[in-house]
Amino acid sequence: MTEPTTQTDVDAELEGLEVDAPLVGIVMGSKSDMPVMEKAAKELTDRGIRNEIRVMSAHRDPDMVAEYAKNARMRGLRVIIAGAGLAAALPGVVAAHTDLPVIGVPLTSSMTVAGGLDALLSIVQMPPGVPVATVGVDNPKNAAALAARILSL
């Protein structure tokens, strides 16, 4: 007679499987942010780091953002890069719903104040307990490099 399989046994088996799940999630608030944020995906891909790109607005669809962040670890993500302009709420909302490292990329737009200063200050000034690493304005390549260092790849 064989022993019953426990959840611990199943978890141990799953840990040993090679999975092609992305390690880094790249999110942005608007499709118009794609040309800039794709640079993070390219940098990660060039480094051999699997990634995914999603467009989701912290203001227009906060429930989608919360669900994405809450399920990120379960789906295999280990770092999230969030690009946002203007009020730049996306990185903070993501960080509020996950324990994964979140890297904020402040973005400029035609409505941006002082070359992205509004977005930069919104991302860097997170309240205690909601940490968001922040890179330079329009610099998703540095966000990807930081994600690689976090992953130690």
Automatic annotation (TrEMBL):
<feature type="binding site">
    <location>
        <position position="30"/>
    </location>
    <ligand>
        <name>substrate</name>
    </ligand>
</feature>
<comment type="similarity">
    <text>Belongs to the AIR carboxylase family. Class I subfamily.</text>
</comment>
<dbReference type="InterPro" id="IPR024694">
    <property type="entry name" value="PurE_prokaryotes"/>
</dbReference>
<dbReference type="GO" id="GO:0034023">
    <property type="term" value="F:5-(carboxyamino)imidazole ribonucleotide mutase activity"/>
</dbReference>
<comment type="function">
    <text>Catalyzes the conversion of N5-carboxyaminoimidazole ribonucleotide (N5-CAIR) to 4-carboxy-5-aminoimidazole ribonucleotide (CAIR).</text>
</comment>
<feature type="domain" description="PurE">
    <location>
        <begin position="22"/>
        <end position="153"/>
    </location>
</feature>
<keyword id="KW-0413">Isomerase</keyword>
<keyword id="KW-0658">Purine biosynthesis</keyword>
<feature type="binding site">
    <location>
        <position position="60"/>
    </location>
    <ligand>
        <name>substrate</name>
    </ligand>
</feature>
<comment type="pathway">
    <text>Purine metabolism; IMP biosynthesis via de novo pathway; 5-amino-1-(5-phospho-D-ribosyl)imidazole-4-carboxylate from 5-amino-1-(5-phospho-D-ribosyl)imidazole (N5-CAIR route): step 2/2.</text>
</comment>
<dbReference type="Pfam" id="PF00731">
    <property type="entry name" value="AIRC"/>
</dbReference>
<dbReference type="GO" id="GO:0004638">
    <property type="term" value="F:phosphoribosylaminoimidazole carboxylase activity"/>
</dbReference>
<dbReference type="InterPro" id="IPR033747">
    <property type="entry name" value="PurE_ClassI"/>
</dbReference>
<keyword id="KW-0456">Lyase</keyword>
<dbReference type="InterPro" id="IPR000031">
    <property type="entry name" value="PurE_dom"/>
</dbReference>
<feature type="binding site">
    <location>
        <position position="33"/>
    </location>
    <ligand>
        <name>substrate</name>
    </ligand>
</feature>
<protein>
    <recommendedName>
        <fullName>N5-carboxyaminoimidazole ribonucleotide mutase</fullName>
        <ecNumber>5.4.99.18</ecNumber>
    </recommendedName>
</protein>
